[in-house]
Structure formats: C-alpha cells, structure tokens
Amino acid sequence: MKSDLKPFVDAILGKNAKSAREQLEEICQKPDLTGEIWRGYRLALQGMVAALETGDELNLIRCIVDGKCSRENIQELIRQTRDKTSQEFRPEDERGFSKAWMDVLQIFLEKLESTTR
Predict the structure, then answer these.
(1) Which domain range does residue 25 map to?
(2) Number of domains, the chain
(3) Which is the most buried residue in 46, 57, 87, 115, by most CB within 10 A?
C-alpha cells in the first residue's frame, strides 16, 4: 500500500488538493481495501485532503507541507503512530487511521531526506 501512496503524497506536498483527491479516489477503489482497518486508513487520508482544501494553517498536514515540522518532529510522530498501530486493544479502524499517518509520514520523511542530500 505504501508505494500506492507516493502520488498522493506528491500531490499533498505540492499543495494540490484536486490531485490529492483524485489520487485518494484511485486508492479507495482498490478491491482489497475493505474492513475496519481500511475504513480508518481511508478516513485518515480523507482528513489530510480536507485539511489541505480548507487551508487551515494549524492542521498537522499543513505544518508539515509548509516546512514547519522538523525531521525530528516527523520521526517522533512516526514512532508514536507505530506504537498506536501495534496496540492490540485499539479498535481496528483506529489502528488503520494511525497506519495511514505512519505510511504518509514515512514517505514525507524519505522525500525530505532525499532533497537535503
């Protein structure tokens, strides 16, 4: 799934809400994305697009896209979301939500590191 997110992340980083929404629709059409875990995953991605569309500067995704979040902050967010996804007591949709954030943040971090080399 993570490789399918790269065009979505590119659209988010480019602050292109229309393209991000189109990429999200493509992701959501995949037949294997059913169940509660994927419902949470889709909700997280939809929230990222909505945050981009509203232009609210206080949203986490906007802070990351605008470069207001350091590499260390993103690494810490990845660690926190990884912890949440591994906690069995959490409902599946919540774990899916956290998994989506972790996947997107990892791609952000990879792109950030590749541009600073």
Answers:
(1) 2-115
(2) 1
(3) 46
